[in-house]
Write a structure and sequence with these properties.
This protein has about 190 residues and is α/β, with parallel strands linked by helices. Helix content is about 40%, strand content about 20%. It has helices spanning about 15-30, 110-115, 125-130, 140-150, 155-165, 170-190, and strands at about 5-10, 35-40, 50-55, 70-75, 95-100, 120-125.
Length: about 190
């Protein structure tokens, strides 16, 4: 695997930084080198937050923010109106957006047409989290969706990352959310 660069967008309180860390941990459990780090502006609940992750089979020496991501995970669709979440996307990039609406319903036809078929998917991550965790924390769903969308990580690695960080019912709820999201994205890809 060449270095895979991922940019995660969300709002303060949605677990964006934790998601980047969990992505990194999932990659590490599969034997990859990985790094994750946040970029903070105003550190308050609801403010836009960006985190970055890199995954590679070679040691990672870069430490700067990711300006040309191979994948973008957007945990809050309201950011589409206020932040250029798609800036710098590579020509084969993947986009996973937390929404119950389709990319077309969100006005993203140009993006869908510009990127390879099946590279832009929406996932109702918050809905899955509310059903299983009881809180609007879309991280596990988004990471499992990313794994299904790209094929770069295994579902079990994502689940294991959350089980390493959390215990008991919380760990199991996140594992269940991840399984739901993984299946959802695989089915969505098969329909395209």
């Amino acid at each position: 695997m060449q270095t895979l660069t991922i940019r995660l967008h969300g709002r303060g309180g949605q677990g964006v930084v934790t998601s980047a860390e969990m992505l990194s941990l999932a990659a590490f459990t599969e034997g990859h080198y990985a790094q994750a780090f946040p970029s903070f502006g105003s550190e308050r609940t609801g403010a836009p937050v960006v985190a970055f992750a890199r995954v590679s089979d070679k040691p990672i020496r870069l430490r700067e923010p990711i300006m040309e991501p191979d994948a973008v995970l957007i945990q809050d669709r309201t950011l589409l109106e206020s932040v250029n979440v798609f800036s710098g996307l590579t020509e084969n990039a993947y986009v996973l957006l937390n929404s119950s609406q389709s990319p077309e319903e969100l006005g993203l036809e140009d993006l869908v047409n510009r990127l390879p078929k099946g590279h832009v998917i929406t996932l109702p991550a918050t809905k899955f989290a509310l059903a299983r965790i009881g809180r609007p924390l879309p991280g596990a769903a988004m990471l499992a969706g990313f794994a299904a969308l790209t094929g770069k990580l295994k579902l079990e690695s994502v689940q294991q990352a959350f089980q390493t960080r959390y215990k008991g019912k919380v760990a199991q709820a996140n594992a269940d959310v991840a399984a739901d999201a993984y299946s959802f994205v695989l089915e969505a890809k098969n329909r395209l």
